[in-house]
Design brief:
single chain, 225 residues, alpha+beta, Pnp Oxidase, Chain A, 3-stranded antiparallel β-sheet, 14% helix, binds flavin mononucleotide
Length: 225
């Protein structure tokens, strides 16, 4: 089948698009408003952009009230946010924080989560999460929508600090992803989690060298020419 997005003539009972770029990691974004109220919400239009230095992005649609969400306002007004890795064990708490609470409601309290202080930024970290990224706001790219909800703000942040709980680091230095069990978003109301890993050695062509492998792994400091 083929359909044009402008016509939206897919003929399926359920919209297929969000089921195509899957699985998507879930950015669980904690911020503070200007009065210091804590905010926490999940964003699956979320990814890393690059690694040296590391940048990430989240894409925040407007609400059905055509207003920008608390996360967008807080990041642009305070210049800081934290991403907390979502795990299979934290799925219910993550889902609770997605409800449309008023700006002054603390989603940490609503979901029964514990606040941990950050080191380089002010927003709290989710203590129950195994990995957190402290981020400084860089810029917003505004995408016009065909509806009020379709209008989106792509928010780019620079990662300035990384927390990893020691119990999730393996003796060989890798993160223990099978123990973390990251939760990921699929289409509809479906989710998956990482419970299987396999390794593919990098393919090599003439001219490839060790540095290319280091780049694939995300090593920094190896390219200072
Ligand atoms: C798993 C999951 C992923 C979500 N991803 C997004 C997203 O990528 N963009 C978005 O605008 N809303 C997304 N939402 C909805 C927001 O979390 C929701 O609108 C939330 O109330 C926003 O809170 P805030 O106003 O405190 O920022 C998602 C919800 C869930 C449960």
């Amino acid at each position: 089948m083929f359909y044009e997005t402008e016509k939206n003539d897919h003929g399926l009972a359920r919209p297929p698009f969000k089921s195509i770029a899957v699985p998507r990691p879930i950015g669980w974004i904690s911020t503070l408003d200007e009065n210091g109220n804590a905010n926490l919400a999940p964003y699956s239009q979320f990814t890393n952009l690059t690694f040296d230095p590391p940048y990430i992005l989240l894409s925040v649609n407007q609400g059905i009230d055509a207003l920008r969400k608390d996360t967008t306002n807080n990041i642009e007004r305070t210049g800081e946010f934290v991403h907390n890795m979502v795990t299979y064990d934290l799925m219910q708490q993550m889902n609770t924080t997605a409800a449309a609470f008023p700006p002054d409601v603390d989603e940490f309290e609503a979901a029964g989560l514990t606040k941990a202080p950050s080191v380089l930024v002010k927003p709290w970290r989710v203590a129950e999460s195994p990995v957190q990224l402290e981020c400084k706001y860089v810029q917003t790219i505004r995408l016009p929508g065909t509806s009020c909800v379709g209008s989106a703000d792509i928010i780019i942040g620079k990662v300035v600090g990384v927390h990893i709980k020691d119990e999730f680091i393996l003796p060989d230095g890798k993160l223990d992803i099978l123990k973390i069990r990251p939760l990921a978003r699929m289409g509809y109301s479906d989710y998956t989690c990482v419970d299987r890993i396999f390794t593919i050695e990098p393919s090599k062509a003439a001219g490839d060298n060790e540095e290319r492998t280091l780049g694939l792994e995300g090593a920094t400091g190896a390219f200072n020419k």
